[in-house]
Recover the amino acids of this structure.
């Protein structure tokens, strides 16, 4: 989406860390989300962060939020082949609407 | 015990036909949504209902008509299907306010 931007592709070696970056434009965003979509599958909510937080960690996932720069990142530690998927960044701009980025296709190579 | 379920998973039909996609959620959520994902994987909201009331309608052609018989169901009816309607349609639901949205597995619509 035009309000949320992500790089389109990321290639990472198995066992390394992946970092997926996202920028958004609406300073009134309340929550920011990361969704994962595997080939032919639906959208899986991976994690989300409230806009008054800087960081959230959940097992191998670390979300960093820089509200001043409107920059969100998702770090996946010890990337595995099962992490190959499209990762969508999304922001909620009011109570009921999500605006999605175009998705980052992550390819994990052996 | 699927949280958000859509039927059918695949729908192949001819141009000009009318078709419906059904969605049900068992999460007790008040708000339900329809999104369209195009061939480039871009996701855009189409409609949202809160407690059976339409709250978002994102300039979708009026050939698309959502119907919410109760807050656990949001169906999507499409009249006079066109080639450009080919996409994956996702249903989602969320609790009150800005709660995270949970998605169904999608309905892959192909127009011949």
């Amino acid at each position: 989406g035009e309000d949320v931007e992500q790089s389109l592709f990321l290639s990472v070696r198995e066992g390394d860390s992946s970092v997926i970056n996202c920028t958004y434009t609406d300073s009134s965003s309340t929550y920011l989300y990361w969704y994962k979509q595997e080939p032919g599958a639906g959208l899986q909510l991976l994690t989300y962060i409230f806009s008054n937080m800087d960081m959230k960690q959940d097992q191998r996932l670390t979300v960093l939020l820089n509200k001043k720069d409107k920059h969100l990142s998702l770090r996946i530690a010890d990337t595995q082949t099962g992490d190959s998927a499209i990762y969508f960044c999304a922001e909620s701009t009011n109570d009921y609407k999500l605006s999605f980025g175009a998705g980052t296709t992550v390819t994990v190579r052996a | 015990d699927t949280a958000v379920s859509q039927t059918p998973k695949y729908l192949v039909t001819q141009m000009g036909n009318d078709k419906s996609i059904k969605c049900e959620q068992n999460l007790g959520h008040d708000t339900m949504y329809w999104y369209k994902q195009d061939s480039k994987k871009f996701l855009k909201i189409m409609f949202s209902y809160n407690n059976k009331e339409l709250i978002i309608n994102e300039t979708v052609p009026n050939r698309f008509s959502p119907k919410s018989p109760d807050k656990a169901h949001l169906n999507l009816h499409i009249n006079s299907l066109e080639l450009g309607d080919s996409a994956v349609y996702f249903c989602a639901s969320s609790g009150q306010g800005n709660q995270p949205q949970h998605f169904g597995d999608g309905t892959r619509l192909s127009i011949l």
In short: The interface with chain A takes residues 31, 33, 40-45, 48, 50, 55-56, 90, 92, 94, 97-98, 100-106 of chain B (CB under 8 Å). Chain B has no helices and eleven strands. Chain B has a mean pLDDT of 93.
